[in-house]
Write a structure and sequence with these properties.
alpha/beta, MutS, DNA mismatch repair protein, Chain A, domain 3, Rossmann fold, 5 domains, 6-stranded mixed beta sheet, 21 helices, flat
Amino acid sequence: MNRHYKTLELDKILQRLSDLTVLDTARDKALKLEPVFELDKVNKRLKQTDDALMLSGRFGSPSFGGAVSCAGSLRRAQAGGCLSTSELLKIARTLHVIRTVKEWHSKFASVENSLDIYFSGLVSNKFLEDKITTAIISEDEISDKASPALSDIRRKIRTASSKAREVLDKIIHSSSYVKYLQEAIVTQRDGRYVVPVRSECRNNVPGLVHDTSSSGQTVFIEPMGVVQANNDIKLLKGKEEDEIERILFELSVSAGDYADAIIKSYDNLCTLNLIFAKAEFAYRMRASMPVMNDRGKINLKQARHPLIEKEKVVPIDVNLGNEFDTLVITGPNTGGKTVTLKTIGLLTLMAMCGLLVPCADNSELSVFRRVLVDIGDEQSIEQSLSTFSAHMTNIVQIIKLANAGSLCLIDELGAGTDPVEGAALAIAILEKLRSKGAKIASTTHYAELKEFALRTDGVENGCCEFDVATLKPTYRLLIGVPGKSNAFAISRRLGLGEDVVERANELVSTESRQFEDVVEKLEKRRQGLEKQLENANRLTAKANTEKQKAENELRKAKLDAEREIERAKQEAQRIVSSTRARADALVEELEKARREKELSAEQRSKLRRDINQMEAGADPIKLKNIPDEEYKLPRPLKVGDEVLIYDIDKNATVLAPPNKDGVVLVQAGIIKTRVDIKNLRLLKSKVKPPAAKLTTTRSMPSRMDARPETEVDVRGLTAFEATGVVDKAIDNAVLSGINKLTIIHGKGTGVLRREINRFLRSNKAVKSQRLGTFGEGEDGVTIVELR
């Protein structure tokens, strides 16, 4: 592997990726994966991985286990060779995996994705798969179903074997021969049935000797009575082997005919296995797809090094190539400077390999022609290289290779030599690399480089934050702020004598001390502003939450008000329709009486009752039977009491105490009204009115009381609520003699229309139903004809 890639530990990433693959070929591809340098190819690879992650999340991952590379066997079969049973079974298993993966893809064939080209390259061949698995049971056994000839041969072998065993069974159970046998059993030698006879009695059992035991005490004799049967079995065995060879050759020819398609399908299968392994790796890292460019711009948000444990890694935000092309990172040792460099480089290489990177959404990375790295101590005694010499050797190569398409990552630039010369050399190296157009990120401890970044356009300071109070780094990267080495503070905390620390402080030059003081003041100011910003963000989030809550409440109140108004309108329509019907009936009776010119007492009484009922029906408030003895409140009403408006059976809340006329202001739902105190019952009081004194009436609906609606609007309701409203409207329409009903459900997603039509089909009162035509509301309404 490229030395620079290995320094960034890309090999460890690829090893983890390979562990997630199933197929050997896919594992090799994962280990040999290399970055590509064309933006289109990088975006294509990333899109494939992202699509695989999406498909895995929605449909689960396909199974690739069981497939193996059969290219060698298939090419040999294509050339006319005969394959073994194990080779043919491997081909069948591979065909099975290809078929199952293709069937898995068919579940979401309508979902457009960038992997369709590989799925379409999978050619299933169930004919060959079944032909092999039907003929071959295992590596050592061919099925009787492989061919009719094989089945017939094996049947004859079983018949001959049965005859031979019958003869031998008679011998081993015969009193004449049993005394000569070592054991009364039948066994085989060289495929022929024999019996074990004592060595000294071999002449007493006529037959052919086939073998002798290792001790010489037993000889295995084939009795003359089974020689012919054994001969038949031997001949049949030979035919069986010939038939098996013919079957294997026939299967090999079939496999050879499809060799190219199987090999191509297996290659696509391995590619898919690698892509889905990338998706699994991305899921485990909680990675996302970065936005790629080829202009050298890097903007990572909440980036995490993938080789550091999730519980320990600290996300960083880093950008490069936008407002500045060079980032100089300072800070104490063990503060995270090197990890920052490796994170930038490794995530860049991973993206160029088609791997999603562990960072927040909308992070941006660039495609670089070269990623050049000098990180770590490469001191070598064998090559007589000191630390400084090793670093300089690497940097010389970096300067030679760097160009406008390069990303250069240099750790501890200029370290390992005289500080003054090292700082000057570091500045000169940065200037040289910048002149070549490279993007650079470097770490250092030199104050001269901090000053260089402050006074040079296109060069920016960065630092890894360090908590001096706890002597622990926070590993946060701060862009635009130079860092301190904090050597004195760390030494003091670790127990170095105060006099030594003070003396060291005196030896520091005035300019250096002033610079460090400025840096310290800037850091304190930054921390203060950061706390203020955090507090402001928290208050803003809280205000937004409260605002959203208030908007939701207002929206709910408006919706409730609209529903109450709609219910009131419907109730008014019902009252008007019912009263009109009663009035028409009374007019008809009066007209009839006028014609008869005389009313009997019974008719006058009936007309009076009808008029009273019509007046009562026209009153929206139906009074209940008031008991003779009036209800007495257990205590005076006060604001906030829950009461019952007795005559309309409605709960309400007291808004104001009774006035001098005994009228109380209450709120029932969203409606405020004034009610006589005598019509109120206190709900919260433990004193309840006597049950015996209260009477209620319940009436069954009649044709005159039913609400004759011809239109029902269920828009905005759930399917459950809507079917209840429609059911009630149908009942009222039937009672009112209406035979046509229009249900307004809107178009929308079609769910409400579907559920209402399903309900109508099961309602016995419905004669027919259809969607509206032009002018009736089209698909937004359903016209119902009632029986």
